[in-house]
Design brief:
This protein has 471 residues and is an alpha/beta fold. The chain has two domains: 201 residues, Rossmann fold; 210 residues, FAD/NAD(P)-binding domain (3-Layer(bba) Sandwich), CATH 3.50.50. It is 32% helix and 20% strand. It is built from 16 helices and 18 strands. The chain has a seven-stranded mixed β-sheet. The protein has a six-stranded parallel β-sheet with strand order 6-14-7-8-10-9. Strand 16 and strand 17 form a beta hairpin. The radius of gyration is 24 Å and the shape is globular. The relative contact order is 0.16.
Length: 471
């Protein structure tokens, strides 16, 4: 009897779970054994910790991911940190193939003067706070009245909306008490969102933008002088339904009169940030007026505007993080790879001609950078697993030294790694739903790693012989 083909996937967000699911469904004539690892006590990555709490529609993706793991043909090892709890060599000793799907969780840099002043924040850090990430502090400074958000994508919109929204309007969501109390104490009156390009180039999705117009007790303010449309803009509007809907919604905002709401959310276009102002702390933001170049881009006009601001949030994208024992391209923020096969180079531009790191693969944002929506991850994973199956068929993969499924359990337990499994997630899930039900909500997040692990371990001592259970 031949042994199963063993695959480890590092990162249990959508990218990792899609890869596992597609592998199990691929046409093959051999048995398969897949183990999924995540450094957090719960899977789902940015769907759990990167989506605003007042967007449960997007969080519904979790339900589809749960169905995949509920089948029981994929093992989950949560609270296992790659590089600390388990090394690349220990993985390649136990698996035929290792896929990295660690995503991007940090803010991309914005190289302008003053960006490191106190009061200048990365949007990802703020998102982690309001999404109750277990590894971030539970306090956030919200004593500022005038706040700038730099960026023209959905993350910028989420940050601006959460800052402007009344805390009581979030009480129906999954936010824990410390997030509610923090937002309740906020002194914000005005939130300004700055984008360097025009309305037709904004990266908002139509639904997110429309929802902005329905936020209670917040006036949406736009500026007619920012509404420039060149030939490229008009082509996009007529050929792309999403662009058409976004520009229509923005244009509709220009027709609305402010109603004297206690908070205002300002949308600015054609303003490129050039400097965060201040000496000991943020006191303002300097932007340069832009003009459309006719080809979908912009050029600076040399006209500068200084805006009085108390804080600046940078929502200019996410960036990948280097992983131990793996090559990393810091310019693109990815593990260098060619169509998912990790390659031995530090420059993604050289990936096609570089030597392959045998048996090691990548998928998701750590493979291609933080672009595209969650749905794009499926096609990305399919490309990677296709190459894994090709490499197995070609006989180029090295057999693991310890191929038994029990070997990874023995390794983690020998190191004292406090891992939990899929049943542990269900216990945590039930605990969060019980907390929410007590307050008339669907769920209420448990915000500390210790609290999450405590719930995941409940009943674990009475479960005899359950591989990978909380212990």
């Amino acid at each position: 009897m031949t042994r199963p083909f063993r695959v480890a996937i590092i990162g249990a967000g959508p990218a990792g779970i899609y890869a596992a699911d597609l592998l199990t469904k691929a046409e093959r004539d051999f048995d398969l054994s897949i183990d999924l690892f995540d450094r957090l006590p719960t899977p789902f990555g940015l769907v759990r910790y990167g989506v605003a709490p007042d967007h449960p529609r997007i969080k519904g993706i979790i339900n589809a991911l749960i169905k995949v793991l509920d089948r029981g043909d994929i093992r989950l090892f949560s609270n296992v940190d790659y590089g600390t709890d388990v090394t690349l060599e220990e993985l390649t000793d136990r698996y035929d193939a290792v896929i990295f799907s660690t995503g991007c969780v940090k803010d991309a840099s914005l190289d302008i003067p003053g960006v490191d002043l106190p009061g200048s924040y990365g949007a990802a850090d703020f998102v982690n706070w309001y999404d109750a990430h277990p590894d971030v502090p539970q306090t956030w400074p919200l004593e500022n009245e005038k706040v700038a958000v730099i960026g023209n994508g959905n993350v910028a919109l989420d940050v601006a909306r959460v800052l402007a929204k009344q805390a009581d309007d979030l009480l129906t969501t999954e936010i824990p008490d410390h997030v509610y109390q923090g937002l309740k104490s906020s002194k914000v009156t005005d939130v300004h969102v700055f984008g360097r390009r025009g309305p037709a180039q904004a990266k908002f999705t139509p639904l997110e933008l429309r929802e902005l117009g329905h936020v209670k007790d917040v006036d949406i303010i736009v500026y007619p002088e920012d509404f420039e449309f060149d030939e490229a803009s008009m082509t996009s509007i007529h050929s792309n339904n999403q662009v058409k809907q976004v520009t229509k919604t923005l244009t509709d905002f220009t027709l609305r009169d402010p109603k004297g709401a206690p908070r205002r959310l300002h949308l600015h276009f054609l303003h490129a940030p050039v400097e965060v102002l201040g000496e000991d702390k943020v006191t303002g933001l300097r932007t340069e007026r832009q003009e459309l170049d006719g080809n979908g881009g912009v050029n600076g006009t040399g006209e500068f505007v200084d805006w009085e601001m108390d804080a600046v949030y940078r929502a200019v994208g996410y960036a990948g993080t280097a992983l131990p024992q793996l090559p990393f391209d810091p310019r693109k923020g990815v593990i260098p790879n060619h169509e998912g096969r990790v390659v031995d180079t530090l420059d993604q531009a050289e990936a096609a001609a570089a030597d392959v790191v045998q048996g090691v693969y990548a998928t998701g944002w750590i493979k291609r950078g933080p672009v595209g929506l969650i749905g794009h991850t499926k096609g990305d994973a399919l490309e990677t697993i296709t190459h894994i199956l090709e490499d197995r068929a070609a006989g180029v993969l090295t057999d693991p030294v310890y191929p038994d499924e029990s070997s990874i359990v023995e390794l983690l337990e020998s190191k004292g790694v406090d891992y939990t499994d899929w049943e542990g997630y269900h216990r945590l899930d039930a605990a969060e739903k019980a907390l929410g039900e007590a307050e008339g909500r669907e769920r209420k997040k448990i915000a500390t790693r210790e609290g999450m692990l405590s719930e995941a371990r409940v009943l674990a001592c009475s479960e005899v012989g359950s591989t990978g259970a909380g212990h």
